[in-house]
Amino acid sequence: MVKANKARISELEEMIQIVLLAIPREISAREFYLSAVAKATSDASRTMFLNLAEQEKGHEIWLRKILNDLKTELGGLKSKN
Amino acid sequence: MKKDDLKEYTGKDGKPAYIAYKGKVYDVSKSKLWANGIHMANHKAGQDLTANIVMAPHGEDVLKRVTLVGELEDKEPDLQIPPDIQLQVNIKEKYRQLYKKFHPHPVLIHNPMGLFVFSALMQAIYILSKDVSFERAAFYSTIFATLTTFPAILSGLFSWWVNYETTFTKIFKAKIIFSAILCVTSIIVCLLRTLIPNIYIEEGLLNIIYNSLIFLNVGFISYVAYNGGKITWPS
Ligand code: HEM
Questions:
Q1: What is the pLDDT of residue B17?
Q2: Domains of chain B: which residue ranges?
Q3: Residues near B39 by beta carbon (within 8 Å), at least 6 away in sequence
Q4: Is the CB of B111 under 6 A from ligand 1?
Q5: What backbone phi and psi angles, to 5 degrees, belong to B142?
Q6: Among B167, B181, B231, residue to substitute to test ligand 1 (most atoms within 8 Å of Cβ)
Q7: What's A42's DSSP letter?
Q8: Is residue B82 over pLDDT 80?
Q9: Is the pLDDT of residue B55 over 70?
Q10: Cα separation of B69 and B26, whole Å?
């Protein structure tokens, strides 16, 4: 039981690190696409970049949600030990 | 329609497939992409999929192609963020923009990194050549290395706060612990050499400690920097 907990804790910590490092990437990807929107010369490309920017925002929200869940689970496990 | 009613429309066993999105209910039964009520092996009919759109490679415009059948009565209220938290978020966003513009951490770390290495190199040349001008160079560059370590660390902590919500992970633990060790050891080197000016010629334990720390500092700062690289270049 305790061993299983330990394994899960290190798994969670690993996941948290991955998700954490991914978030700033999504943010800068979004900002990059938004700057591309400003530079786009046609409506079609503007729409495309806007869509891409929107998706990055979605990824960021999703990652934050996952991060929150992981942190909650980790907190729960650690307080049990 | 209520959420509980929606659950019935799973698209399985010949039932229609309904999905909810932002309070509206759509019939996706006719779509080939929703055969058996399952979309892309991941999203199931009979549910509110508002949050799932972020995983999709498409936007909400695809919903124009399916039939709107009604409204969800008990949709989740839109998330309201309390004003004080909103204010904090805004302030942090302002700092994040500033950080992005000036990126102080990668700017400031090069001073201590260069100086600690330079100091060790000078000390090594002194030990080999016994030319005291190299010993002086080693001492003075350790002083400047120590002084410039603090802005480097503070900017790192600042970035950790604005970009990574001060979350402890292996990488950040390693950076913080070894930065702290580096602060202590570099101050010890400065103090030893200031309080015992002959430490570099008087043979004995203190001399060994003094020399060892000068070289160890290079190891400590390299390890902190190596972990920093893992943040910007994750493998
Ligand atoms: C003397 C001490 C330190 C040195 C020499 C150092 C060195 C580095 C290096 C070489 C990078 C990679 C930069 C790049 O690829 O552009 C980096 C990144 C980073 N370091 Fe440090 N670091 C130090 C202390 C700290 C501390 C105490 C923290 C806080 C926990 C920290 C947080 C970060 C963060 C968040 C990054 C990602 C890049 C960024 O946000 O700008 N560092 N560090």
A1: 92
A2: 3-71, 88-232
A3: B28, B33, B45
A4: no
A5: -65, -40
A6: B231
A7: S
A8: no
A9: no
A10: 5
B141 within 8 A of B119, measured Cβ to Cβ? yes
- A61-64: long-range contacts (C-beta < 8 A, 24 or more apart)? A61/B54, A62/B54, A62/B55, A63/A19, A63/A22, A63/A23, A63/A26, A64/A23
Type of residue found at A77: L
Q: What is the ipTM of this complex?
A: 0.86
- Which CATH superfamily, name and number, covers B3-71? Cytochrome b5-like heme/steroid binding domain (3.10.120.10)
Whole-number pLDDT of residue B54: 60
Domain count, chain A: 1
- Please report which confidence band the pLDDT of residue B57 belongs to, taking 50, 70 and 90 as the band edges: low
CB of B217 shorter than 6 A to ligand 1: no
pLDDT bin (cut points 50, 70, 90) of residue B201 is very high
Cα separation, B90 vs B81, whole angstroms? 12
CB pair distance less than 8 Å for B169 and A71: no
Domain extent for A16 = 2-80
Mean pLDDT, chain B, integer: 91
Tokens read off for B121: 């190199």
pLDDT digits (tens, 9 = 90+) for A24-80: 999 999 999 999 999 999 999 999 999 999 899 889 989 999 999 999 999 999 888
Dist. CA B233–CA B227, nearest whole Å: 10
**Atom 28, ligand 1: residue with shortest CA distance:** B156
pTM attached to this predicted model: 0.78
Q: Which of B105, B149, B182, B217, when mutated, tests ligand 1's pocket best, judged by the most ligand atoms within 8 Å of its CB?
A: B105
Ligand 1 centre to CA of A26 (Å) is: 20
Ligand 1 mean position to A55 CA, how many Å? 29
- Is A37 strand, coil or helix? helix
Residue located nearest, by CA, to atom 42 of ligand 1: B156
